[in-house]
């Protein structure tokens, strides 16, 4: 009887210990494990990091020796509201949105972990600053007419020029949208007036 009780207690303790040591990475997160860890053959990427990355599965950790922290892999959104000046010296306000996330590969996760693990709420501000600088530079090389004719060009150039910096941060851009071009000087409105006047004149002639 005592033997059965001892076995039962041992099993219970084993289950409790296993649950205390077992960590599972949810589909939308990566576990960043620091401290002593096992070394697995062929894992050259992780060997160079100094910490272990776990995604999509569970792993055993040693409480009190290893620290487990979570890095979100969810999509995030950074609002853009930037004052720019065009190649012609026309001031414009550019409004847009960047949809981004931490990359799914170990290199991206490692880069993001080093920069944002304890300050993940600052990702949006950092992405805003990256795109603000590149957007100002690109708008400064374009005319208002070019941006009106081909807004997709502005979007593509901005996305391409910010790619290297985003890669260093471990982030990838899912979508970049320029939603609004604000023109405080009325330059864009004045551009359309000759065309509007010509259309109105043709309408009057047709009516007559």
Structural features, described:
46% of the residues lie in helices and 27% in strands. It is built from eight helices and eight strands; from the N terminus they run H-E-E-H-E-E-E-E-E-H-H-H-H-H-E-H. It has a three-stranded antiparallel beta sheet with strand order 3-2-5, with helices on one face. Strands 6-7-8 form a three-stranded antiparallel beta sheet. A two-stranded antiparallel sheet has the order 1-4. Helix 4 crosses helix 6.
Structure in a nutshell:
The chain is an alpha+beta fold and 208 residues long. 46% of the residues lie in helices and 27% in strands.
What brief labels describe this structure?
single chain; about 210 residues; alpha+beta; 3-stranded antiparallel beta sheet; 8 strands
Structural class based on helices, strands and sheet pairing = alpha+beta
**Count of DSSP H/I helices:** 8
N-to-C order of helices and strands? HEEHEEEEEHHHHHEH
Beta fraction: 25-35%
User: How many β-strand stretches?
Assistant: 8
Strand order, biggest sheet? 3-2-5
Distance between the termini: 112 Å
Q: Mind telling me the C-alpha Rg? A: 28 Å
Largest sheet: 3 strands, antiparallel
Poorly predicted runs? 195-201
Q: Into which percent range does the helicity of residues fall?
A: 40-55%
| Average pLDDT rating | 82
Shape: rod-shaped
